[in-house]
Amino acid sequence: MKRFRLKADGRIVELRDGKEFPLAPEMEEGAGARPGVRDLRRRARLTQTEFAARLGVPVETIRNWEQGKRMPRGPARALLAVVEHSPETVFAALSREPQPA
Q1: pLDDT average, residue stretch 40-62
Q2: Contact criterion met (CB below 8 Å) for 12 and 82
């Protein structure tokens, strides 16, 4: 089983042998919507509306990311980094109904 940690700056790292290994390269300011949101969505073969619904964000957010009007930050950036590596796992996890406490 793999172990991951969400860092305060939104990066996700994998924990192996007590060391942290980034899942995606550092995102530079102004470098575009890294990871490429449009590319991630197209690889998943989803429309903007479908992708937004699967991630639980407004479709306007996806549009803004893809057009470079806004950049994914913090948890959204971390989620997209995981989607880049394992989209099926993320979509399956997000589609599960919450269990009653």
Answers
A1: 94
A2: yes
